[in-house]
Amino acid sequence: MSPNPNNTVGIGGSGYSFQVLSRSVGFENPTPRLLGFSLLSLTRANNKNNIREGILFTYIKFFKPRGIECTLNEKIENNLLTVFNFPKKLFPVGRLDKESEGLLLMTDDGRVFNQIAISEREKEKEYRVTLDKTFDKNFLESMANGIVIMGKKTRPCKLISVNEKTFQIILTQGLNRQIRRMCYKLGYEVVELIRTRITNVELGNLKSGEVQELNTAERENLLL
User: Fold this and answer.
1) Which of 43, 119, 194, 200 could crosslink 102 through cysteines, CB 3.0-4.6 Å?
2) Which residues are catalytic?
């Protein structure tokens, strides 16, 4: 099946039409290409009905480079628009501080922001962190149990040691510069911070500055 100009897809002889409510767009230089659509509702179609026009949403994962401000404000130096170019306006879901890098979701679907960026929903975000010196078991336990920053104790989180200076951390909240502040409280400086996952969406093999469309499973799980 392919979408028609009215954003509906009919089922032969059934008298029903699916309403197309979301569609993803990806890069195929130099022109964007449609990659498919999500069928989110079924509407009875007849001569007396007018099916509401569908809303076309775009979902992109982007490897934000280090040194880029997570803003679309063109008045701010090194803003996202200096490295992220797309034929329609997309917004970042949440934030990633200037000195951090890695996975950033870009979309025009406000439902994704509500699902991912609001801390109370406790969606997982995973980061790879490298410190300025070696850490021990006590450091990992303290981080996992929560650290008081900005007058508030962070939620318990999961940590996995990678090597003597690097660990993976999985958070379910997103306080301002949370990982950096937590590490600083314990006497460490973060020298590299890369976000590698947001819920079920992984950075994968993306290189700094690269983009990739979300696949069907990734798009659908974002809204669960």
Assistant:
1) 194
2) 97
